Each structure stands twice: as structure tokens, then as C-alpha cells.
């Protein structure tokens, strides 16, 4: 899928789909800082946006961007359930992990309404 927009959109999709909930919560700040530093280095020390702007974009579009992850998680759960993906003996463990990631996303969206 090609999408022109905020870099935070891609970061959100990568972190929410690629990491277990607790690791994502622990490491998000570190990954945002690393991304911004790497981008700054690429642009000779001057990224096209500040770290604060990246944080603001991340917070602003998290509910929208996470919906794409929730859709992806539902597909992965189906693939684990029907045996298309993964080992049979790991099926239930993988499904539980994906449901936990989805739960974490929903909890984060609900918590963001309070801020």
C-alpha cells in the first residue's frame, strides 16, 4: 500500500504490529528518538520536522493508523487459526499474543481520549 503522509503513520504500524504490547510501550520513545536522529543524520543534521512535531503527529494519528494494524491482526489470527501461518503447536500462543497486541492498541486509544 502506498500512502503519502506522516512518517508517524508508518512508525505506528510497524510498532503496533511488530512488537508485543509491553515492549512497544517500553520502547516507543526510544524508537521515536532513534528514528528522528537517523533522519536528522540523513539530512545533514536537520530533519524536516522536530522531535516534538514527530511526537505530536504520533499522538494525533495513533487512533487512525492503529486501525490498519487491527485489521492486519485480524487477518493474522485467521491465518494462525486455519493453519495458513505458523506451526500447529504454536497456534494458540500466537493467537493470544495477537489478541493482546489488539487489546493494547484499544487501551491506548481509550487512554488518549483522557489527554
Nutshell version of this structure?
This is CHK domain-containing protein. This protein has four helices and no strands.
By secondary-structure content and strand pairing, the structural class works out as: mainly alpha
Secondary-structure element order, as H and E? HHHH
Coarse morphology = elongated
Low-confidence stretches: none
Helix content: over 70%
What is the rounded Rg? 16 Å
- End-to-end Cα distance: 31 Å
Strand content: under 5%
Domain module tally: 1
How many strands?
Answer: 0
Mean pLDDT: 91
The major β-sheet equals:
none
The helix count comes to 4
SSE blueprint:
Elements lengths: L6 H12 L2 H22 L8 H32 L8 H22 L3
Describe the structure.
77% of the residues lie in helices and 0% in strands. The protein is built from 4 helices and no strands. The radius of gyration is 16 Å and the shape is elongated. The relative contact order is 0.15. The model has no long low-confidence stretch (mean pLDDT 91).
Please name the defining characteristics of this protein.
115 residues; mainly alpha; single chain; elongated
